Inverse folding.
């Protein structure tokens, strides 16, 4: 029983949150533990298919476990088109929560083939309820609440990031900084 509780507690340690301090793909948090973090940004490409144009964003990227655990906690200034990306290398089934996150967020769970597996729209601020996809994912994208609808995101759309957003790009193995689904 204690082992099950420990596993559950570690899964719940993942939380919702992003940051942006410009520059390259790697950055350490610039705020203390009680304040929001600002992380480096990475280009992100959303492909809707033939019926809608591609969407390009620049989102903060949480590369380290510490950055992913803090996420968008304490952030109050997330604007339209901003967000945080949580790469999962290797792919796994993470659990997110909204503890200490004062903004409503949309969580987009990205399968290993780059397609959107699940969209959790309008996750409630400060809610400790676990949020997850029921499949292993290569990443999770957090956007301001309502952005998934504004960007016309749908399950099955494809997401890539890093240098993989440049044309043309051959599929590659997954890394935290670059994700080129095949």
């Amino acid at each position: 029983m204690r082992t099950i509780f420990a596993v559950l507690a570690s899964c719940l340690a993942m939380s919702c949150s992003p940051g942006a301090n410009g520059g390259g793909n790697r950055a350490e948090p610039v705020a203390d533990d009680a304040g929001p973090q600002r992380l480096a940004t990475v280009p992100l490409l959303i492909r809707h298919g033939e019926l809608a144009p591609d969407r390009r964003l620049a989102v903060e990227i949480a590369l380290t476990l510490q950055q992913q655990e803090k996420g968008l906690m304490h952030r109050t200034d997330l604007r339209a088109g901003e967000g945080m990306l949580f790469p999962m290398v290797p792919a796994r089934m993470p659990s997110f929560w909204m503890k200490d996150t004062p903004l409503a967020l949309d969580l987009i769970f990205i399968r290993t083939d780059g397609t959107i597996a699940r969209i959790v729209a309008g996750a409630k601020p400060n809610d400790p309820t676990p949020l997850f996809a029921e499949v292993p994912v290569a990443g999770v994208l957090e956007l301001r609440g309502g952005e998934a609808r504004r960007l016309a995101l749908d399950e099955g759309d494809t997401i890539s990031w890093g240098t993989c957003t440049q044309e043309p790009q051959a599929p590659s193995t997954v890394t935290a900084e670059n994700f080129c689904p095949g």
About this structure: Confidence is low (pLDDT under 50) at residues 1-32. The radius of gyration is 15 Å. The helical segments are 2-12, 65-70, 147-150. The longest strand covers residues 83-92.
